[in-house]
Design goal:
The protein is of the alpha/beta class. It contains 10 helices and 14 strands. The protein has 2 domains: 130 residues, Periplasmic binding protein-like II (D-Maltodextrin-Binding Protein, domain 2, 3-Layer(aba) Sandwich), CATH 3.40.190; 94 residues, 3-Layer(aba) Sandwich (D-Maltodextrin-Binding Protein, domain 2). Strands 8, 9, 10, 11, 12 and 13 form a 6-stranded mixed beta sheet that branches. Strands 5-1-6 form a 3-stranded parallel beta sheet. The radius of gyration is 30 Å and the shape is elongated.
Length: 274
């Protein structure tokens, strides 16, 4: 009888121990489950809104241009914004486009009015201190648009002349550096938009319109010519607010994937920029 009781006693002890352990584990079963939504806040805000807000150019033919007849905004960079909208919110048409010029691109990001700027925004070390930039999606150089009647063949022929540039653009610095190398003096007049610079060239207020060559091609007409020299390579990148690191990575990865797949090359060809 004593031998028979030992297994029964042992079973009772095991049962009691298991009960204690199960009771101890019971509290954890009521703990809230971890959230399945691990989307970073900067991306989640866009998804919840359902619209990607982008700062774009409306006065640069082939990149971002608002047709005065239809009111439609079209161009290479607009197509890039649509591709990003499709990636983030699932619909390329879910975009809110805000026209910007060189002077307003930064403030639009700083104030949170747009999620990104994709507007012929040249990447510089100074600007990278204030904003996240993607890898370059387009490379160009600063050029000079002059009246054919001027007979100018190079920057040297513009010594003592007035050169029109957009406010806050990198063109002025590039041309000034080249003028210093040549030992000539040039004068600058700044304007709010590219269209204003072109109007100043047409009216004779300036002798030259300087900005990236690809932009100048949109303003070329029968009376003007773009001089062959190029200065200070300009690499365009999409920019985001410094704190929006997850969004910056997503945009950079998407654009790089488009490069690898050949999609960006197709878009460049579509807009005559290749």
């Amino acid at each position: 009888m004593k031998i028979a009781k030992k297994p029964a006693l042992l079973s009772l002890v095991i049962l009691l121990v298991c009960s204690i352990l199960l009771a101890g584990c019971g509290g954890s079963s009521t703990a809230p489950a971890a959230s399945k939504d691990e989307t970073p806040p900067d991306i989640k805000a866009i998804k919840d809104r359902g619209v990607l807000k982008a700062g774009i150019k409306v006065d640069v033919p082939k990149f971002g241009f608002k047709d005065p007849k239809t009111g439609n905004i079209e161009g290479f960079e607009i197509d890039l914004v649509k591709a990003l909208a499709k990636k983030i919110v699932g619909d390329e048409n879910k975009v809110e486009l805000t026209g910007t010029v060189a002077k307003t691109r930064g403030p639009l990001l700083d104030n949170g009015d747009v999620d990104l700027v994709l507007a012929t925004f040249t990447i510089t070390e100074e600007r990278k201190n204030s904003y996240n930039f993607t890898d370059p999606y387009f490379t160009d150089g600063v050029a000079l648009l002059v009246k054919k009647a001027s007979g100018a063949q190079s920057l040297k022929d513009l010594a003592g002349k007035k050169i029109g540039v957009a406010q806050s653009s990198t063109s002025r610095k590039a041309i000034q550096e080249e003028a210093d190398k040549l030992g000539i003096k040039v004068n600058f007049l700044e304007f709010g938009t590219y269209a204003e610079v072109k109007a100043a060239l047409d009216s004779g207020r300036v002798d030259c319109f300087s900005v990236d060559a690809a932009i100048l091609f949109g303003y070329l007409d029968d009376s003007t010519v773009i001089l062959p020299d190029r200065y200070s390579p300009q690499q365009y990148g999409a920019a985001t607010k410094k704190s929006n690191t997850a969004l910056a990575k997503l945009i950079n990865d998407t654009l790089n994937d488009m490069k690898k797949s050949g999609e960006i090359d197709k878009l460049l060809a579509k807009w005559g920029l290749k």
